[in-house]
Amino acid sequence: MIRTVVILLWAGVLAACSPATGGGRDAPTGAVLTLYGDIETVDRGPSQAALEPLFFAYGIEFGSACVFSTASLASLDQHEIRVDFPMGGDERRFSGPLLRDVLAIAGPQGTHLTVTALDGYQRTIPLEQVMAHDVILAIRADGEWLGIGGYGPALLVWPRGTDPDLAGQTDDDWVWGVFAIESVTPDET
């Protein structure tokens, strides 16, 4: 119950700060993505349970991090992928920066990324896999900003329609509602 309330409160705050449509409107400026863990570049201090209940609800704690707003993500080189999502659905036009360009700013040192979505879904993906493909961190779909309540604030989009190595890829690594990415090196025990 507490987790649901936290998600609804967080979604309400972000939705109030986000444009309803992408049209000609500017990108929201508040932080929507936090990269943490084993990274080189940081621009914020530790997580604070009292002020950041969503991090607390998902057990996300860090001493420092690198944060991005939708506007800062939009300022990076934008790439477009036309692909069906969900798999087998209509083809849509997703756009945003390459995930590896976002990661280059934070400088991850781990071997994997644990991507966390607003609904609590987490997926740990080898960094090598992300770097080998033109994965984008989509912030728009069909020209509209991805919003809370939909696939936003960001969605991992893989070029499964044009990259032969990804042909037939399921939606498991297509994390939507992305708000946190941790650079980790999992124990191999």
TrEMBL record:
Regions that span the bilayer: none
Keywords recorded for this protein, A-Z: Signal
Keyword Signal: yes
PROSITE patterns for this protein: PROKAR_LIPOPROTEIN
InterPro entries: OxRdtase_Mopterin-bd_dom, OxRdtase_Mopterin-bd_sf
Region forming the signal peptide: 1-22
Domain Oxidoreductase molybdopterin-binding per the UniProt entry, residue ranges: 92-147
Record keyword Signal present: yes
SUPFAM superfamilies assigned to the protein according to its UniProt record, in alphabetical order: Oxidoreductase molybdopterin-binding domain
Protein name: Molybdopterin-dependent oxidoreductase
